[in-house]
């Protein structure tokens, strides 16, 4: 091999070495850029009371625009509740809900609306709080939505939702009118594959654990002789 070929080979080897050294940094930069473009939204409560009829009854109408057909006297504008509703109503294929308390009529209507659109909705909740007056759980079940609950072995205290298996909604907020309108609460809405995967695994674990075939509310009768 002549001197020129040796020089070319050496240059290629150096170039490959540098490329391999730089590659991890480039991949990290690309991932960071992708994460920065992913959805990140923080909501704080109590929420301003606004009309949500445009979101719940007229898909495609912006909630920030006054609804001509809405007779209510509530202000028509953006609020933490309306932004939460938007995040939920963006679901097109699936919605997993894991909620300690669920009594908000607006959020209940949103979940039923998604079910009517053909979105697969599954709900996990706490057995004590689902029986309280005003709970939306009975209405969801009546609408044909799958619901599973614990057996009073400690509170099922999670408060999270997963939209289309790609957007996580979680925080301190119970889905109740009291919490939405009066409490200091927070909700984080984020599109992150790793966090969504972890919460989805937790949901599936609880979903299987709360399978009704495993309930022991009614002990098996002893067989007669």
UniProtKB/TrEMBL annotation:
Subcellular location: Mitochondrion outer membrane
A single GO molecular function term of this UniProt record: metal ion binding
Pfam families: PLDc_2 (PF13091)
Annotated GO biological process: cell differentiation; lipid catabolic process; meiotic cell cycle; piRNA processing; spermatogenesis
Subunit structure, as described in the record: Homodimer. Interacts with MOV10L1. Interacts with MIGA1 and MIGA2; possibly facilitating homodimer formation. Interacts with GK2.
Family: Belongs to the phospholipase D family. MitoPLD/Zucchini subfamily.
Designated name of the protein: Mitochondrial cardiolipin hydrolase
Organism per entry: Galemys pyrenaicus
